Amino acid sequence: MTVGERSQRPQPAADVVHDRVGDRVVLIDAEGRELITLNPVGALVWQAMDGQRDLSAIAAIVHDAVEGVGLDEVTRDVQSFVDELVTEGLVVEAR
């Protein structure tokens, strides 16, 4: 999946274990070799990736939750973060 297009609808990969711990989300990759802790903003993105929302909608959710950052910058950051999660095999495009 290439998520450079805002029409993409990302969702967590089925084999990724995740759990919310306070305001963070902890991810464990499919092989169980890597544990990743997402900060509160990353956790917000993770929770918004439900396979229904596109990247623009996810960026809008994040933008509403953070102060002092423009929508364009948030959108770029969300796209970059989701691209990284896709590369790691933690996120896929909804079908």
Portion of residues in beta strands equals 15-25%
Overall number of structural domains: 1
CATH architecture type: Alpha-Beta Complex
Q: Helicity range of the residues?
A: 25-40%
CATH class descriptor name: Alpha Beta
Polypeptide structure, described:
With 95 residues, this protein is α+β, with helices and mostly antiparallel strands. The protein has a single domain, classed as Outer Surface Protein A, domain 3. Helices cover 39% and strands 21% of the residues. It contains three helices and five strands. It has helices at 40-48, 55-65, 71-87; strands spanning 10-12, 17-21, 24-28, 35-38, 91-93. Strands 2-3-4 form a three-stranded antiparallel β-sheet. Strand 2 (17-21) and strand 3 form a beta hairpin. Helix 1 runs antiparallel to helix 2 (55-65) and helix 2 packs across helix 3 (71-87). The mean pLDDT is 91.
